[in-house]
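ok so I'm stuck.
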Amino acid sequence: MQQYREIKNRHQDAILFFRMGDFYEMFYEDAEIASRALGLTLTSRNNGGASEVPLAGVPVKAAGEYLRRLVQQGFRVAICEQTEDPKQAKGIVRREVIETITPGASFADDLLDQARNNFLCALHPDGERVGIAAADLSTGEFRLIVAATDDTEAVLSRLSPREILVAKNMNSGVKLSQAGEEGALVTEREPWEFDVALASTDLARQFGVASVEGLGVAEADAPALAAAGALMRYMHELQPGGVPHLSRPVMERPGGMMPLDEMTRRNLELVESLRGGDTGGTLLSVLDRTLTPMGSRLLRQWVLTPLTQREAIDARLDSVALFAHDPIGREELREALDGVRDIERLASKSAAGRGTPRDLRALGDSIGRLPKVKAALEKISGAVGLESDPLSELIKKWDDCADLGADIIATIVEHPPVTMGDEICIREGVDAALDEWRSLRDGGKDAIARIQMEERTRTGIHSLKVGYNRVFGYFIEVTNSHLHLVPSDYQRRQTLTGAERYVTPALKEHEEKVLNAAERIEERERELFESLRKRTGAQIRRLQGSSQIAAELDVLSTLADVAERENYVRPVMTDGFDLTITAGRHPVVERMMAREKFIPNDLKLPEAARLMILTGPNMSGKSTILRQTGLIVLMAQIGSFVPASSAEIGVVDRLFTRVGASDNLVRGQSTFMVEMSETSAILHTATRNSLVLLDEIGRGTSTYDGVSIAWSVSEHLHDVVKCKTVFATHYHELTQLTDELVAACNYSVEVKEAGDQVLFLHRLVAGGADRSYGIEVGRLAGLPPAVLERARKLLALFEGEQIVSALGSRSGKEAQRSGEKQRGGSTGGAPAMPDQLGLFGMATHPVMDELKKLNTDSMTPLEALALLERLVSRARQG
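replied:
not stuck anymore, here's the structure
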């Protein structure tokens, strides 16, 4: 217990799994917490103290499931192992914490998602910039990021870290609320750990360079470097054996990739569905036909980090095009990739000393498939006949690690056990001593026959026999007629009626070997396995390089495969402003429409008509058009072909979408407050090269407030930001913006009325809509007929009142102004509410204009009836 308390004092923030034989035991508060979290029986024991000690334990062989449940609940678990053989220990067995498992630091498969990284991040704010260091211990990936403070949430949203390190009492304006919502554990560290000088020393030592400049880290990257220092120190605490598999850091600076805020990622359903949080119904679910776990992770990263440099985008598109134009070669490569396991994580496990025999064999089998991958790649590249195609660059960097794969396959059996000692792990013929001990353990008939033959030859007693029984063990039996030939080194063990039984030093040695064979087999197998794992881990850089290339080939060939299956085309990327999409389709909705054909739409946003006001009824597909526009642009900028017959896309630096309504009760924000917060973020962040997609801004408040905000937002995007904008709205008053804004245009989604039926054609046409058909949508939803009829009457009443209000607004205001002038300028009371339609100078209906011109005093009754009939007919025609 003294040993336990000493170790626990060094790991007070973690539940301590204290190894005692075949169990991990927990004591005191740890036992109480674990019993509640895991449903364990809480017992107590007097362990030499004055009182009973609370106790709970789990079997070592079943610890994985308990660890997973604890970590998923946000606990840290320190694994304290016996680090010496209890049989050889003098006194108390020596124990040490070999690793601490947290949500952001684990190698266990059941704690990891194969399709996404498990990032552990550190944040360090520095003025208007934030340094972010991100490491995935399971793969060795290491990234240093410098971002604007406003982009911090976008970066964290992309990385989706499981754990975030911050300095204690950090007060920088950096928001971690979103990270907290997604379940990230926030861990506070001492401020001195974020020191830049200490970080430089630690990173240079980790990667064996004279200074961090050798890692591509510049002075301007100081915030990211400070974060990296704290992260490195924390990882070494969690992994006392070190992190030798950590790859050289990749430096990310502003400008190369598009930050995607959480709002846009959620609204476009890029990697998580709004309905359940899984990948079903997302862009990732459409694109992800990858064959390897590392390919799946890389595709997810690409989807969340679109490129913003045209040259880089075109380079990816070139590679996808090569695969798309060679379906036979692509299929050969994909067949070779099929069966390649997670080389990245398996190699990291080996380097960190965590790999099991089964992990190592899976790594060897996967490496064994890489030569076929290279052969298929060379065939595709050779068919192109270009000296500098992008695939040839990958071939130059390719290393299939054939020597390492052969070493693993030659050493480990085809179907190894998960843990050492359960079954055979090392192949026969690898080690002579191991083979001998196995022969002894398994009966050793050949060895007994050999000893018997040797003794017969040495003594000349041809009837001599070597036998075994449980009482005396191995023995040599000689009949009485040959006792005079027994050598002096024979030691009598047993006398029989017609014979004597003896033992010899050689036979004793053989017996000892047999009895100790099983123990020695396990020890020798462990030695040989550890040696192989160490050799494999020493090649981590080669393995990581091969894994990255295999992942890239997997993603590129997948994008080509999806393009062929779904009839996607290569977009034309430009550095200009215009966005032109011909026959564009929504990739997810199209996939889900198994029986119906998706109706494509054209969309053009030239600089001269950069603000599109999109109106149309409910259920007509406005939101679908918004989302498909955003998805097509994003797909193009990750290097994918797009669902359209053609597309010319001016590269955008940011993509913003504000679609749908939602509240955030945790933050105390109403639906309208969330809407305004997201709109504010867009207006403050968007640039001329951005694409903004807005849906129903202002719907969360009163009509007057909503229309005013929507109008003002549109003006700001048109006059100040001057970016490409599609604004879908039910406020038909906004169609009048085209009269005031030179670069605004009206489009609507077409609807056809057939009797009392409404047909939604889902086709984008020029011009604004004049109705929303909300009552018709209510009919389709199944509202009771009485409710629908009452709604139609109220609609007619409200529309009539609105017309009267519009007609009388001017005369009423003129009378008010006249009265104010007579009274000296002010009424002294509350200001009159402005008329909403008059606020925007609404043009009245032509029938209204004609009514105003009439002189009813000079009309005959017959003329009045004829005029009334004509006006009614015109009004009904719209």
